[in-house]
Amino acid sequence: MVRAGEVGQRSPQPWPIPRRIATLSVHTSPLDQPGTGDAGGMNVYIVEVSRRLAEAGVEVEIFSRATASGLPSVVEMAPGVRVRHIISGPLEPLPKEDLPAQMCAFTAGVLRAEAAYAPGHYDLVHSHYWLSGQVGWLAKDRWGAPLVHTAHTLAKVKNAQLALGDRPEPAARIVGEEQVVAEADHLVANTRTEAADLIDRYGADPGRVTVVQPGVDLDRFRPAPAGQAVADRQAARRRFGLPPGGHLVAFVGRIQPLKAPDVLLRAVAALRRREPAAAVDLRVVVAGGPSGSGLDEPGALIDLAKALAIDDLVSFLPPLGGADLPALFRAADLVAVPSYNESFGLVALEAQACGTPVLAASVGGLVTAVRDGHSGVLVDGHDPDDWGRVIGTLLAAPRLRRRLGQGAVTHARQFSWTRTAAGLLDVYGEAVCKHRAAVTSGMCRQAAELSASIR
Known about the structure:
This protein is an alpha/beta fold. 42% of the residues lie in helices and 15% in strands. It contains 15 helices and 14 strands. It has an eight-stranded mixed beta sheet with strand order 3-4-2-1-5-6-7-8, with helices on both faces. A six-stranded parallel beta sheet has the order 11-10-9-12-13-14, sandwiched between helices. Helix 8 (261-274) links the parallel strand 9 and strand 10 (282-287).
C-alpha cells in the first residue's frame, strides 16, 4: 500500500524541523539553465524546494560536480542555500554514463567538506537521482544521518517505455538504483504511479515510500491579466519573432528521443497532409537544447522538419529562462508534451499555470500533471496520426480551448512549491526521529548486553 503522503496532507505527528540538510545533485547543478544538457525538471525542483526550506529555517547545502575551471567552490544561491562544487574528474561536462567512474572522487570531496564542521553538522541527507543516491548511501553511514532519496527517473520504467532508436539504460544503473532503494531510510516519489513502480519493480518497503508532488511557481507562471490576453499573446509572439496571428503549438524541453519532440513534428506533418487548410496559419516552436542521446545527432530535429517539408512552419529557440518561458507559454494556443516517460512533467504544470491547455502523452506523472478533459488532453500512444487529429480538433475549437485554459489555471493552482516543501519537511522530520530512536535503541541494547556480561 502506498502511503497517502500527498502534498498538503500534514502528518498528525509534530515532527521536528531539521536544522541542516545536505542535498546531493551529482550530475547537474541547480545553477544550470534547464532545457539543455542534463538540466531539466530536477534542477527546477531542487532550486525551488531549497529556497522554501531555507525560508522555513532549514539550512541547505547542495553538493554538485564542478564542470568548469572558473566555478567558485561555494556559491550562495539564496539566503540559507549554498551550492558547493566538488572537483571530481575533468572540469567539463561529462555524459552521465561516464560519471560512475568519478563517484569515488566526488564522495571524497563531500566527506572532506563535512569534516570541516563539528560532528553531527547535517541532520539529514537528501539525494536526487541514483548517482547521488550512491554517494548519499556512503555519507549516511559516515555521518550517522538518515538518507532520503528521490529518484526522479527510474531505469526499469524508462526501458519499458523506450523511444524508437533510443539507448536503453545500462544494467549497472539498474543495480545501482536497487542498492539505493534498499539503503535509503525513506523514498520520496513524485506521484502514486512512481511510488507503485518503486514498490513493484524495485521491492521498496511501502512504509518507507511517501508521495510528495512537485509544484509550480504561481507568481512567475500565471495567465495574462484579465482583458489583456490577446494583446499579451501578440506581444509575446513578436518577442520571439513569430507572426502575431494564427495558431501556435509549443514544445519546451530537452531535445532527446525520450521527450519525443519528433512526435510533434510528425503529427503536424500528418495534419498538413490530411487537412492542408488547417496548417496554413499554424506555427510550431521548439524551445530547448540537445541532451542525452540527442547529443548523438544535435541537428536531427532540424533535419527532420526539412525531410517532412514542414520547416516553413517550425521555429527553433534556445532554452528559455526568466520571463521568456512564461511568455512563450502564454503565446501558445497549445503546449505539447509527447514524452515517452515523465516522473511528473513540470513543463505541463507551468504551461497550465499560464492558462494554456496541454496536449500530453498518457504516461507516468503526466497523468497527474494534466487533468484529462479539464486542463488539457491526454493521448494514448505516440502515433503521429492520432496526435495530428487531436491537434487539428483543438485548434478548430476556440471555445473548447478557452474552457481548457480556464481549467488549466484551476488545476495548476492545486500545486505549489511551498506545499512541496511542507511535505518534504514531514518526511525529513519522521526520518530524523526514527533514525534517532533506532540509534538510542541500539545504544540501550548494547548497554544492557554489557551489563549482563559484567553480572
